[in-house]
Design brief:
Elements lengths: L2 H11 L7 H21 L3 H13 L5 E2 L6 E2 L1 H12 L16 H14 L4 H21 L3 H4 L4 H18 L3 H11 L9 H4 L9 H15 L15 H6 L5 H4 L23 H13 L7 E8 L2 H8 L7 H5 L2 H11 L21 H7 L2 E5 L12 E7 L4 E6 L12 H12 L7 H10 L7 H6 L19
Parallel strand pairs: 3-4
Antiparallel strand pairs: 1-2, 3-5, 5-6
Helix pairs in contact: 1-9, 2-4, 2-5, 2-6, 2-19, 2-20, 3-4, 4-5, 4-11, 5-6, 5-8, 5-11, 6-8, 8-9, 8-11, 9-11, 17-18
Length: about 475
């Protein structure tokens, strides 16, 4: 027992020099990737709707809103930056849990670093702590948290954001414990959107980010919470997951970093779909066929739960539905004809797609998702198989054990930067993307985080109007 207290003590006592260099390097990669997601995500119509509401109803001067440059309170700035970060299903994923830690950890840490007038080394430490705590809690409840209908980022995210805030404010172990304890009362999130859609999923990282920032601020002010919030009889693990493994919360803490299992997404849709894209790419690299040549496509996955998550929607009603529809997303890729990051399922592709396009819908109807009879994929973090049956009777088969971007098949440094440039080059002034890359690569040398976040602010003349297609003002 006392798992929550153990995590709090670790978070409060960790020093950056104690963190292995490979963990720091991964964290830098995640910071860069999430910066790109924030800048691009702010251009989307739904992101700007949230921005308009927050700008009209909130106030503050402590933290900067990416893209727009407004100053708001730390929790409100973190909310908006997290909204932008997760706006288009492009932010990173810990697929084994599964959860999306970066869209919570990075915006929370940035807002609280600016509030606390922190330097880059403290920001990096806070990001590492936030990732690790979120992932460990999600992993302790995996896979039952999501199987029961809870969206893990909204459930575990408040704990990570609170931990980031605690690190940046220099809270001691007892106060950090209260921050985590308060954060637990904010846990929420349901995944009904995978069945019937809805745009509220766009703020499923923003809700926990703002909540965790507030929890840290409340704890610093002396508010307390239940110190067994994770492991207790009425605590998070038992209430949310029912089946869980408390050992996963603390096993190897300080020596084994689950952050190293985190993945960067090359495509802007549910990560569980990605392996099918890679399989299709590999098939088309060795075989020539067009969409008209296809009679049907079978996609094999490893569990009914995964099948339910990405195979339920065939004819989406909106963009989010398309991003959680394996059949429709695969149809987009098949008709686009490209490969990799530029293969037709990127950030700029989904908001432009016509979900009622008869050609895409007809192809999506040809795609059937099913659980393999003798699965070659024994856990959630592994891939998928694809079988393309052509009209001439040929059967083409490909298996991808690990989709591109997973730690077993990582993006190279150049591929990561290619993705970053694809996100921000249409928006930022010339030369700015390189300045951001260089600053993140040496983030420990950044003296004021407030200067770093100014790189993410877009001059008014370069901003995009809040309409599909991103027409510039």
């Amino acid at each position: 027992m006392n798992e929550t207290r153990t995590l709090a003590r670790w978070a409060a006592g960790l020093r950056l020099q104690d963190v292995p260099e490979n963990v720091r390097e991964y964290a830098r990669r995640f910071i860069l990737d999430n910066f790109g997601c924030q800048v691009a995500g702010a251009t989307l119509p739904w992101s700007q709707s949230y921005y308009d509401v927050m700008k009209a109803t909130r106030s503050g001067t402590h933290a900067t809103v990416a893209y727009f440059g407004d100053k708001l309170s730390p929790d409100d700035a973190a909310f908006l930056n997290s909204t932008f970060n997760h706006a288009n299903e492009t932010d990173d994923t810990h697929l084994k849990s599964p959860t999306h830690p970066g869209g919570i950890a990075v915006p929370a840490a940035m807002a609280m670093a600016e509030y606390a007038k922190a330097a880059g080394d403290k920001l990096l430490l806070a990001v590492i702590v936030a990732y690790e705590i979120q992932i460990r809690i999600s992993w302790a409840c995996s896979p039952y948290l999501i199987y029961r209908g809870h969206h893990p980022p909204v459930g575990v995210g408040p704990f990570g954001a609170a931990a980031a805030g605690a690190v940046l404010m220099g809270l001691d172990a007892d106060t950090t414990l209260n921050a985590l304890a308060i954060a637990g009362s904010h846990s929420a999130g349901l995944i009904e959107y995978t069945k019937t859609g809805g745009s509220v999923k766009r703020i499923h990282s923003a809700i926990p980010t703002a909540a965790g920032v507030r929890a840290a601020l409340f704890a610093a002010a002396g508010i307390t919470g239940p110190h067994s919030i994770l492991e207790g009889e009425k605590g998070f693990c038992k209430v949310f997951a029912v089946d869980y493994d408390l050992k996963r919360l603390t096993d190897g803490l300080g020596t084994h970093y689950h952050l190293l299992d985190n993945a960067i997404k090359p495509y802007s849709c549910c990560h569980l779909i990605h392996a099918a894209f890679d399989a299709l790419d590999q098939l088309r690299d060795r075989e020539t066929f067009s969409p008209d040549d296809v009679d049907r496509i079978l996609v094999y996955t490893n569990s009914e739960q995964i099948l339910s998550h990405i195979g339920s929607i065939i004819e989406p009603e909106d963009i989010l539905g398309a991003q959680f529809s394996l059949p429709f997303s695969l149809a987009m890729r098949l008709h686009h004809g490209g490969r990799g990051v530029s293969g037709g399922n990127g950030f700029w592709d989904y908001p432009k797609v016509d979900v009622k396009d008869a050609t895409l819908v007809n192809t999506a109807r040809k795609v059937k998702c099913q659980v393999a009879d003798k699965s070659e994929w024994s856990s959630v973090d592994k891939g998928a198989g694809i079988e393309v049956i052509l009209r001439n009777g040929r059967h083409l088969k490909e298996i991808v054990p690990y989709s591109k971007g997973l730690p077993e098949n990582p993006l190279s440094k150049s591929e990561l930067e290619e993705k970053f440039h694809s996100l921000v080059d249409p928006i930022l002034p010339a030369g700015r993307p390189k300045e951001i890359i260089d600053s993140v690569n040496e983030i420990e040398k950044v003296r004021k985080v407030s200067d770093l976040i100014q790189f993410l602010v877009v001059p008014p003349g370069k901003r995009f109007a809040a309409v599909a297609g991103w027409k510039q003002r």
